[in-house]
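Following up on my earlier thread - several people asked me to post the actual chain instead of describing it. Fair enough. Here it is, all 364 residues.
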Amino acid sequence: MNEAFLGRAGWALGLVVALGSLASLASLALVSGCQGAESDAHASEPPLLEADTAVRLGDVQAGPVSRPIRGTGVVRLKSEADLSFKVGGVIAALYVEEGALVRKGQVLASLDPTEVDAALRQAKEGTTKADRDLERVSKLTASGALPTANLEDAQTAAALSHAALTAAQFNAQRSHIVAPDDGRIDRRMAENGEIAAPGRPIFHLSGRSRGAVVKVGLTDRDVLRVKEGDRAHVVCDARPEAPLDGVVSQIATVASPSSGTFDVEIRLAAPPAGMLSGLTAKVVIPHDEDAVAVVPVSALTLGKGNLASVFTVVDGHAKKVDVTIAFLLDDRAALSNAALPRGSRVVSGGAAELADGMRVRVVQ
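Reply from S.P.:
Thanks for posting it. Predicted structure:
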């Protein structure tokens, strides 16, 4: 009896286990079916709308735009000159020192007169003899004692002697160095007793009568934007508190071989007293250039060379506008070609994230 009972109990337990397994399989199938249905439901739903992109707008300014030309140069007195003797000789006297103020016509140095005076006396004696010979030959020719050719030779000799006398007188005058202008002696390059060769610089004079200039070197692009008569502002590094007015007075037509830049001369309108040659100065030449429009640099996107794009906002959507860049100036870009009406605005913040037609939201 016990064995029969145990047999029936085991059979019942196996049945329960089998039923439990079937229930578990059914539960798993139900879960899988629900998940599949949920996935199908999600797949059939429409996609979510794209969120608006926040952007900031910047103003579009109209041209022309100020684009000044800047350079650094050196102040020079316009009538600077190296002074020398016309003829060579022994320096007898130097009458001024470096830094001396001199007046026009003042004698600055002299050569020993022995040699030039001897040459002058020789020329005078030669002229006297030539004139005497001409007078005698003229009388003999008039009486028929000499042919006309002798008279012509005597006339030529007299003319040559007078020319030699003129040259000797000129050299005697140039045996002194005379100041050609009011100014200051910047350098003295000789001493008493030295032998000076003709043309050797003895003094360097900075004259005052023709005023002061600033010479700056400009690149080829900048020099083409400058013309004679343009106004300029000059600030000496030693006197930044006292700016000076000037005007472009000369533009080089050939570039400097050493630097490749073009020298531009700015004449100072009223140089102050005591202006020294060699001071460094900064020069600003105001200049306006035409531009279709001026936009913030941050508004430019998709740039390649001088071609780029900007975005405007139309009915809450971004609209791409192709533009051509003329030049950049600080944080602005001047455009030479752009379909941007006056008073319009462009996206200046967030432009890099936009595409044509995207929904946007303007923020402050």
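Residues 1-45 form one domain. That should answer part of your original question.
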